[in-house]
Amino acid sequence: MFKAIIFDCDGVLVDSEVLAMRGERRALADLGLSYSREDYMRRFIGMHDGAFIAEVRNDFRAQLGAAPADLEERLMAARREEMKSLTAIDGAADALRAARAAGYGTAVASSSRAHFLEDKMKRTALWDDAAPHVYSADLVPRAKPAPDIFLYAAAQIGVAPESCVVLEDSENGVRSGVAAGMTVWGFLGGGHVSGDHGARLEAAGAARLVDTHADFAAIIRA
């Protein structure tokens, strides 16, 4: 029997992944480094910013020489511009409330930096439905796909990892939840999801796929 549900934030609660990817890819293309949409999603969605920037710098060294000194500033500026359009994913608040109403412990475990995470949750009016158990990978030594942030969240709500369900939208996030010994459900309701995304989440270890928060809430209420 599951006792807790741990939600990812980006791409699960807030529709930020499609915005971040658009801004970041545009900024990188302007600097001469291009990625296909599929490769970008596979490699970078779900990563902590520190790991993401390090990987992009490695790609610059391999393909173009040293990365620009202001690489991180350019990427963050492009992302911020897109985030002006940030919204909650349809039904996210209801999903959080349904989980609590059904008696599950709940937490949010995100790769976002702590100040970005709080800002996104508050701007989309989800903070009050999720607090106080909202945790950033800034709190742990290793970000996703390592299991640290999910293990940390489970410890904070006092539930054993094997009794937790994780709702994740990225391959890196699915691998993180699986490595933590949790059951992972792949979420397909974000604006960045297309094509064989569900199949890739299953290949990474997702035990089932959930199309929308309405579907998720119906499962929880049942």
How would you portray this structure in words?
- By secondary structure, the protein is an alpha/beta fold.
- The protein is 49% helix and 12% strand.
- The protein has two domains: 4-15 and 86-221, 3-Layer(aba) Sandwich (Rossmann fold), CATH 3.40.50.1000; 17-85, DNA polymerase, domain 1.
- The chain has eleven helices and six strands.
Main beta sheet: strand number and arrangement? 6 strands, parallel
Q: Might you state the CATH topology name of the largest domain?
A: Rossmann fold
Summed up, the helix count is: 11
What is the mean pLDDT? 95
Q: What spatial form do the alpha-carbon principal axes imply?
A: globular
User: Structural class given helices, strands, pairing?
Assistant: alpha/beta
Strand content: 5-15%
Radius of gyration: 17 Å
The CATH architecture of the largest domain can be given as 3-Layer(aba) Sandwich
- CATH homologous group name of the largest domain: HAD superfamily/HAD-like
Query: What is the share of helical residues?
Result: 40-55%
Please report the total strand number as a whole number: 6
Uncertain residue segments: none
Report, as a whole number of angstroms, the end-to-end distance.
Answer: 14 Å
Q: Give the CATH class of the largest domain.
A: Alpha Beta
- Output the strand order for the largest sheet: 3-2-1-4-5-6
Order of helices and strands: EHHHHHEHHEHEHEHEH
Number of domains: 2
